[in-house]
Amino acid sequence: xxxxxxxxxxxMQGLRSRMIGIRSxxxxxxxxxxxxxxxxxxxxxxxxxxxxxxxxxxxxxLATGDYWQLLTYGLLHGNLIHLFVNLAGLLxxxxxxxxxxGAAALAKIFWVGIVFGGLAQCFLAPAAQRGAPLVGASGxxxxxxxxxxxxxxxxxxxxxxxxxxxxxxxxxxxEGGFLIGGWLFPDMAPVFVAHACHLGGGIAGWWMAHRxxxxxxxxxxxxxxxxxxxSGYGNKH
Length: 237
Description:
Blueprint: E1 2-4, H1 11-23, H2 26-45, H3 48-55, H4 59-63, H5 69-72, H6 80-101, H7 103-124, H8 138-151, E2 156-158, E3 162-163, H9 164-184, H10 195-212, H11 219-234
Helix pairs in contact: 2-6, 6-7, 6-8, 7-8, 7-10, 8-9, 8-10, 9-10
């Protein structure tokens, strides 16, 4: 998913733009490398089941004072597909967020989404999902997606051709609907998907955009901010 705000570039100008994009998304790349590295370490040197029980998030763990699980669960992933989906989402969405507000704000949005997504999963998920520990960065990713759609509500989303505002609403409504469906019909959802975590993280990102960062800027404001950022990177040699 990309919010379109500028035309495609070619030749040397396109190469320069891509190089600027890489440097202006260093925080996103660092986060992706950390998550990939932790997954590799767990597979090679650790016992995944034991690591998930200790560092994955569970309601029982919080009840016994293992509060660090609210952070550590976001660093773990169940398998390579789970890891790949979240890393791909971070590269696409996280880089966009970082170019708008910087690496520090990116980290803040991501980790607030992790915490609120984890709390939502612990206390709102259907009872059948509360036994297994929760792992994955999707709560943080959901926060980044909803932050981006809230900050650029009128931008068009490629390839869906809908506005950021409608995409954000659609994600929240879909996750809320799946969550309610899990409560009402638990036997119809055999595959574990943490819809409560996605919903909690998404609401956190939306709230941060609307309440902590003030009124959403216009598309023209975002263009000017990005132009200033790229100009600054271009002057550094």
